[in-house]
Structures are given as C-alpha cells and as structure tokens.
Amino acid sequence: MFFNIKLNNKEAVYIQIYKYIKEVIESGMLAYKSKLPSTREMALLMNVSRNTILKAYELLEDKNLVYTKKGKGTFVSKVKIIEKKEWEINWLDNINDYANQCEKLDIMKHEAVYKKGMISFKSIAPDESLFDVEEFKRAFFNRISIEGEKILNYGYARGYKPLIDILMEYMEGKGVNIRDKSILITNGFTEGFDIVLSSLTKMGDSIICENPTHNTAIKIMKLHNLNIVGVPIDNNGISIKELDNCLKKQSIKLAYIIPSYHNPTGMVMCYEKREEIYNMFKKYNIPIVEDGFNEELQHLGTHIAPIAAISGEENSVIYLGSLSKILFPGIRIGWIFADKSLIELLESVKRSRNIHTSFLDQAVLYQYMKSGSFERYVKKVRNIYREKFEVTKRLAEKYIPNDYILGDGGLYIFIKLKNVNARKLLQRCIKRDVIFTPGDIFYTDKSGIDTIRIGFSRVPLNDIAKGIRIIGEEISSCNNL
Question: pLDDT of 228-249, one tens digit each?
C-alpha cells in the first residue's frame, strides 16, 4: 500500500507522507498494533530520505496515531475508524420477487415468538434432553478414526455410499420393493422437496395435497409458483370423495401426501386408505410424492407400510425421508428414494446447488445406525412421546371446548375449536406465557382460523397440564373471540 502515494511539489514531502499514512490508519487498512516498516525500509519504499520518514513518524506519534517501542519498532495506535458513507446502496430496493416472497412466507419472522419462561406448544422438534449424546459421540469417534481423512474431504452428490446402503435396507425393512430404485441424500426434507419440484414442475403446474398440510411444503410450492389444490380431510385423512372430484375436474402434475403422523393433524392413515389413494392416482397417472414424516414414531398397533411399499415394482412414488423430528435435527440428513433413472437426474440438480450434504454428518449417522443405537433410541423415545400424547389429548378433551381433536400419536395434536378465533386466543394466552401454533398457516385456502396445533414433544408433563388448562380458561373467559 505504501507504493500508492503520489508526491507533489506543493507541500513538504514528510507532510504528504504523514497525511497518507494517517488516512490509511483511520480508514482501518492498518489495524491496531500493526507494525509499520522501519524508517530505513519506508525510505527505500517511497524513494525519499530516511530523515523525511523520521519527521513523518514523529508527527504521527504526536497525533497519537502510532507509538514506538524501543528496539522493536513503530506500531499503530488504537484509533477511531472513520467509516466512509458516500456510497450506500438501498438493498431493499434491489431485492427480487423471489426473496420478497421468501420473507413474506417466513413464519419465524411473522408469527408469535417464544420467550424464555413460556410454556411452548409451538415447537414439534424432538426433546433434546432425550438425545443419545454418548452413543452419538462414540459413533463420531469410531468413524473419524476409521476414515477421518476421507469424510473430511469433498464427498459425492449422491451421498455417502455406506449410508445409502443402510437406508436402502431401512426402506426394504418398511416393506418397500427396492428393485431399480435408488437414494439421493439431501439436507433434510426441505431440500429434498425443493429438488423434486425444481426438477418435475414448472410455473403454473397444479399440485394436489391434503388441506391442511405441512406449512414448509406450502411455502416451497408457493415459491415454485405452483397452483396448490388442497383437498379437505376427514377423520382418516384426505377425503376420497373430494379427491376424486378434484382429479376429474383438472389436470394435476404431482400429488403430495403425508400418510403417517400427518402434519399438522397427527393422523395416521390406515393401510386400506393408502391403497385406495394409490390406486386413484394410478388411475389418473399422477406421480405421488410421499412425505415419510415421523413414520418411525408409529406406536398405535403395528407398523403401517408406506405408500411406496404399495407400489411394489412400479415406480410412481417418490418417498422423502428424514429423521429430523425423532433423531437429531442439527445434522440435517434426509433422503429421496425413487426410480433409479430419476435419482440420476436429481443427483445433477443436487450437485449444481451445494455439491453434497456434509459427508462427516452422513458417516457418523451411518455408524450410529450400524451400531444398533438408532433402534434402541427410537424404542425409548417412542414410549416417552406416547405417554405425552395420551396426557395431552386427554387434557385437551377435558379442558378445551372443541368440535374435534385429531391425532394418533407422534409429537402434536390438532384441535378445531368451537367458534373461537385461534389468533385472538393466542394473544390472550401469550399474556399468560402460553404459546401454540394457530392452524390457519397449514391451510391452502386461508381457512382454519378456528384451529390450533399443540406440539408437546419438548414440554414437561406438568407444564402440559398447566398450559392446556390456561388455554381452556381463556376460551371460557371470552365468549366471542
């Protein structure tokens, strides 16, 4: 930087050098405690006499811009940095429609915020106090000692091969036929669904789903400018009659269905209905995107096979898997299970975006699953969440006036209130340090203003009881919310 000064004949050279170094220091280009070149070195750099540099340094020191340590040199003092404000861009005027839409759909910014000390029924994340930290640490150290140099380097867009293999076995264990199928590892459900829609839809295409449905899925569908066709639900999932009516009336590109622990209702669709839905979409030649949300938590009877299992050797189902809601959301591992030829294409889409999902996270998850720790952990948390579900549903039935309560387990229940505006109720409950999720954010048609989702996964049993009673009291204390 000291080569950049241009000296003139109008002012003493040492003054020009002083002003130049002063500007460099005050602009922050030379940080606090930075060492300046010696007077001899600076004289050579600037092609001036050493005496000229001495005078410039003395003036800098007089102005407290530098200080000298005997025998060590001259250093930059701690000074106030002068920020230049001549060029200032108004970034909000430069934001495109996509970013504005993302911000508009960001419920973390626009919904009520949890504050410390509240009883929160808002979250449906797993209870971190149940995390199998010691076993996960053991899996980490074991895997890193075996192939640390490999999993710390670049990986493959498709994913970590041992994890893919174990997930293929995992899918087969669910009753899914894996012949001519493959897996792409993703950063959770969100990336997986986004990749699928980016690859298979275009603006204006129609996608059919349950109404209500997963809010994140609604957001992604809207960001892809899709026409969302929401089909009403009954007490066993999507209404077959309404579904058939919709399919007869309009052209549909894809179907998005959550058969197990449907978000937000918590319902588990029976096998017969899964089969009926599959055959209906088959009749109209509409591929199915199945969200395997929370499937591992099934505790009401035996495991119900996913729709992907019903398809057998057919290739019409794209299964999106994730362990985020029961295992460790922090590692953000999900997968797309689908026809091999489709996975080949989706792999290229994945690679164009972020090269690959963290190989370290994938390798450690593989080790954790391989060791048998995953099965033991799921068995443990399934029992704990089942107890919380039973307590929450029983208390809600007792204290909250409702038209119906939905939920077969998992991490939440869904309540349709009796002529109560859920958002007005929420504002009253917040004043008493209780928060929940108003159900309208899950609807495709702006309805559901009288519904709420109660997430209990992270709430202690005594707080569940206290919070549910408060919600009931606030409903009872106001006849016209």
Answer: 999 999 888 899 999 999 999 9
Give CA–CA dist 266/455, Å, rounded: 10
Q: Where are the extended beta strands (E) located within 419-477?
A: 434-435, 437-438, 451-455
Structure-token pair, residue 265: 């209702």
Token representation of residue 341:
């030829």
Q: Which of 260, 328, 332, 319 is nearest to 290 (CA)?
A: 319
pLDDT at position 84: 67
What is the rounded average pLDDT of the residues 126-131?
90
Nearest to 208 by CA among 246, 245, 248: 246
Q: Is 26 exposed, middle or buried (0-12, 13-18, 19+ CB in 10 A)?
A: middle
Distance CA 329, CA 393 (A): 25
Please tell me whether residue 304 adopts helix, strand or coil conformation: coil
Following DSSP, what letter does each residue of 226-261 receive, concatenated? Answer: -EEEEEEEEBTEE-HHHHHHHHHHS--SEEEE--SS
What is the distance between the alpha carbons of residues 126 and 146, in angstroms, rounded to a whole number? 30
Q: What's this model's pTM, rounded to 2 decimal places?
A: 0.85
Lowest mean pLDDT among 159-168, 232-241, 325-334, 422-431: 325-334
The angle at the Cα of 31, spanning 25 to 37, to the nearest 5 degrees, equals: 75
Spatial distance between the Cα atoms of 362 and 156, rounded to a whole number of angstroms: 11
Q: To the nearest 10°, report the CA torsion of 114, 115, 117, 119.
A: -20
Confidence of residue 300 (pLDDT cuts 50, 70, 90): low
Q: 302-321, pLDDT tens digit by residue?
A: 678 999 999 999 999 999 99
Long-range contacts of 476-479 (CB under 8 A, 24+ apart): 476/401, 477/428, 478/424, 478/428
CA-wise closest residue to 153 among 15, 366, 359, 459: 359
pLDDT value at 481 more than 60: no
